[in-house]
């Protein structure tokens, strides 16, 4: 039995989106690849360009935390409607991590940490040319903090295809998925102590 929601979390250029694209083709049932990019690409093109270049957006109504919360609530709505989802983002703020897991409470979730050595992620980021340089580095020390994963994929020396095969083989063993619950508990404790 495959989980209703697969969460891929990792720094920019770690390979999350490439893994998600491989997964939706290889999974035995239909999943939606619902990345934060699904929301960001709905922004006015000039705002998206500014964001990707690491520049501020001054348009009235722009609020990044609101976009992220909207993404979480949209994911919840899709899951409630019965859709199976692959969520892909770099969650770096503990409150956002908690809000996501709170919104998705009660769903069968597989937490996947997509990890990559910083130098490799930075190299990929530069080669891509569609991200602000330094994004992976700015996310690196925060993205996996206070999270428990059901499985971790290291893409430093592994292709997205190989990482996808590793994840699928593991999912086929019908593992007990506790990452979301453990993460929620850890985040609650950390945020209460702050």
UniProtKB/TrEMBL annotation:
Top EC group: transferase
Residues annotated to bind ATP: 10-17
Lineage: Bacteria, Pseudomonadati, Pseudomonadota, Gammaproteobacteria, Vibrionales
GO MF terms held by the record: ATP binding; transferase activity
Alphabetical UniProt keywords: Transferase
InterPro entries tied to this protein: CPT, P-loop_NTPase
Source organism of the structure: Grimontia celer
Region forming the signal peptide: none
Active site: 37
UniProt cross-references to Gene3D superfamilies, sorted A to Z: P-loop containing nucleotide triphosphate hydrolases
EC number: 2.7.1.-
Protein's name in the database: Chloramphenicol 3-O phosphotransferase
One of the Pfam families matching this protein, by short name: CPT
Taxonomy, superkingdom: Bacteria
